[in-house]
Specification:
- The complex is a heterotrimer of chains A (272), B (204) and C (104).
- Chain A has 272 residues and is mainly alpha-helical.
- Chain A has helices at 3-25, 30-40, 47-59, 101-111, 117-121, 133-143, 157-170, 181-185, 203-210, 226-236, 247-259; strands spanning 90-92, 97-99, 190-192, 195-197, 215-217, 222-224, 241-242, 269-271.
- Chain A is built from eleven helices and eight strands.
- In chain A, strand 3 and strand 4 form a beta hairpin.
- In chain A, helix 1 packs across helix 2 (30-40) and helix 3 (47-59) packs across helix 6 (133-143).
- Chain B has helices at residues 2-16, 27-38, 54-61, 68-80, 94-102, 121-124, 144-147, 151-163, 185-196, and one strand spanning 39-40.
- Chain C is mainly beta and 104 residues long.
- In chain C, the strands form two sheets. A four-stranded antiparallel beta sheet of chain C has the order 4-3-6-7, with no helix packed on it.
- In chain C, strand 3 and strand 4 (54-60) form a beta hairpin.
- The chains are: A mainly alpha (272), B mainly alpha (204), C mainly beta (104).
- Chain A binds chain B through residues 161, 164-165, 168-169, 171-180, 182-184, 186-187, 189-194, 197, 234-236, 238-243, 246-249, 251, and chain B through 19, 25, 27-28, 30-31, 34-35, 37-42, 45-47, 49-52, 55-56, 59-60, 63-64, 104, 107-110, 122-124, 133-137, 166, 173, 175-176, 180, 182.
- Strand 7 of chain A pairs antiparallel with strand 1 (39-40) of chain B.
């Protein structure tokens, strides 16, 4: 079998899928077609490689203390990974802070493994040249919440406060374009160019968006973390760069995560 | 000199340590302090960009739904500052306008100093009937000249709104392209031409 | 030695469906890096699937195939517990073989 035969196999597959769907629904929107494409390649999400890499990083001794992360407490007790992401961000007694997944991983890597914080935050995002450890670790952890209902707590006063601050950041207009998160994400059924935009004040939208991140971006060939997602939003907002794992990004994540409560976590996702 | 040094150190320390927790906190003030602390310069995007002007602050505070008396006041202030072209000519070249409308570039931290900014128009608006990849955050501007009645009226309306959309709706989503200096007077004229010129694909 | 693949193989009504996700950069050799220099070509050239020592698929890959290629194919036969193995070779001579047991 040569390459052209391989292409034919793909072609036949994709055609048969879309014909079946069209016959059933009549008019199919671009978003529906994208959904079909996602379903077709659901078992082929390269984010799985980052989950595998992250799991190995979790279990391999590292840093000056030569320790693994298997005693890391993500909120469900030391070493419990299952379901941890579906309840983050949350308040942690030991740090007396509300933390999201990445800031909590940062705490574990600095305290348990003794890795200097600056070393981790200097390059927290993956690039073509080098995958980021903290990003792979995050991908592993989120994968262990697949199918678990999002239940982010607002019981602790600090959690409530983070949500309130996050909401204020969501509406904070600044920069040369006067943009806030809300400029694009507080209206239903709108799009930028051809890209549909979720309205984070509507539960259904917030759920679909939040539970599909982190995600493998096909156009970039990389798995992108939630902190990266926020970063790229701020870039397009024409803002300066938010510091990695800062209180501002955690508060904003808290606002978005709570709005997504009740939905089954479905990541790591797959995006264009 | 020693006192100055100590002051400097305290200032640096307070920036890196946690924010003071006050009972009954003023969340607005706390949010402002967090935003000031938690962003850093990247490329051309400096932290000064986070300092809000009066209009940005008001729209943020009221989630874009400012009380009507405040809205009128803000709009008046913006309207007063619109610089109409000294030569009285409001239209340029619609072809240059279409190119500008297509470009979504400009002023992000991944753009370089001096890189020309685009109009970003298609990100949010439908314009030419031939371009199907348009956003829907703003209203459709297809057949703008016909819709807005009368050439002169449409020209003035378009120029004013592109120059400063906030002069007409205080918390509009649209950037203030002329007011902030994102686009030049000549570029705005080209965009006006795209909207009103009978030969422009917007009006075909 | 390349990075591990993710393989799933399931038999249904006498036909085995195999899904393979390969981990490879698939550089075309035409792309420039951040430093402005061309990134050297680095891509899978051959893929082979074997079932019970028999070759059931052979494919030639090239620069047009995406990063982290995903391949789905079916062959007649196969029973739960039997092994399917996938191998690839790239233009640098690197190779990788992984195998998986067929599930029902």
């Amino acid at each position: 079998m040569n390459i052209s035969n391989v292409s034919k196999v793909f072609l036949v597959l994709s055609l048969s899928t879309s014909y079946a769907a069209m016959a059933a629904e009549g008019d199919v929107s671009d978003s529906d077609r994208i959904a079909q494409y996602r379903e077709m390649i659901a078992d082929g999400n390269p984010a799985e490689f980052d989950e595998m890499a992250g799991e190995e990083l979790w279990k391999t001794p590292a840093g000056p203390k030569k320790a693994t992360l298997e005693k890391c407490n993500l909120g469900k007790g030391p070493g419990v990974v299952k379901g941890a992401y579906a309840a983050l961000p949350r308040y942690f007694k030991d740090t007396r802070k509300v933390q999201d997944l990445e800031s909590r991983l940062l705490t574990c890597m600095t305290t348990l493994q003794g890795i200097p914080e600056e070393q981790i935050t200097a390059k927290p995002f993956s690039s073509d040249q080098k995958k980021s450890d903290i990003s792979s670790l995050a991908t592993y952890v989120v994968g262990q919440s697949k199918g678990i209902k999002m239940a982010v707590s607002l019981k602790h006063p600090k959690e409530k406060e983070a949500y309130e601050i996050g909401q204020r950041i969501f509406y904070y207009r600044a920069g040369p374009y006067d943009f806030a998160c809300s400029t694009c994400h507080a209206t239903s059924d709108v799009r930028i160019r051809m890209q549909d935009l979720p309205n984070f004040n509507v539960q259904k939208d917030a759920q679909a968006a939040y539970t599909s991140w982190p995600a493998y971006r096909v156009s970039q060939g990389l798995t992108r973390s939630f902190q990266w997602r926020l970063n790229d939003c701020f870039r397009q907002q024409r803002f300066p760069e938010p510091k990695f794992a800062s209180e501002a990004t955690i508060a904003l994540t808290m606002f978005l995560a709570v709005n997504a409560n009740g939905a089954e976590y479905a990541g790591p996702g797959l995006k264009r | 000199m020693n006192a100055k040094l100590i002051l400097g150190i305290t200032a640096a320390l307070s920036l890196t340590t946690a924010l003071p927790v006050q009972a009954g906190t003023d969340l607005d003030a706390k949010t402002a302090a967090i935003i000031k602390r938690d962003f850093r310069d990247k490329g051309i995007a400096k932290v000064e960009r986070l300092n809000q002007d009066e209009l940005q602050a008001a729209c943020s505070k009221y989630k874009d739904d400012v009380p009507v008396d405040m809205k009128v006041k803000l709009e008046d202030e913006q309207l007063k500052q619109i610089k109409w072209p000294a030569d009285g000519i409001l239209v340029g070249d619609w072809k240059a306008g279409e190119k500008l409308a297509q470009s979504g570039k400009g002023l992000t931290w991944s753009d370089k100093e001096g890189d020309p900014a685009g109009g970003n128009c298609y990100n949010c608006h439908q314009l030419s009937s031939t371009e199907i990849a348009y956003g829907t955050i703003g209203p459709s501007l297809l057949h703008y000249a016909k819709k807005k009645g009368g050439l002169e009226k449409a020209q003035r309306r378009a120029y004013g709104r592109i120059y400063n959309a906030k002069a007409y709706n205080a918390c509009a989503n649209m950037p203030r392209f002329g007011h902030i200096g994102i686009l030049t007077e000549a570029q705005i004229k080209d965009l006006v031409a795209l909207l009103v010129d009978p030969e422009s694909p917007v009006n075909k | 030695m390349g990075n591990p693949m993710k393989i799933r193989a399931a038999v249904k009504e006498g036909v085995t469906e195999v899904k393979v996700l390969m981990q490879h950069n698939m550089e075309t050799g035409l792309r420039k890096g951040a430093d402005g220099n061309l990134i050297p070509a680095w891509f899978i050239t051959e893929v082979k699937a074997q079932y019970q020592g028999r070759t059931v698929l052979e494919a030639q890959f090239g620069q047009s195939v995406s990063k982290n290629p995903y391949l789905l194919f079916r062959f007649k036969g196969g029973a739960a517990g039997e092994k399917v193995s996938i191998s690839w070779v790239d233009n640098t001579g690197d190779s990788r073989t992984d195998e998986v047991a067929i599930t029902a």
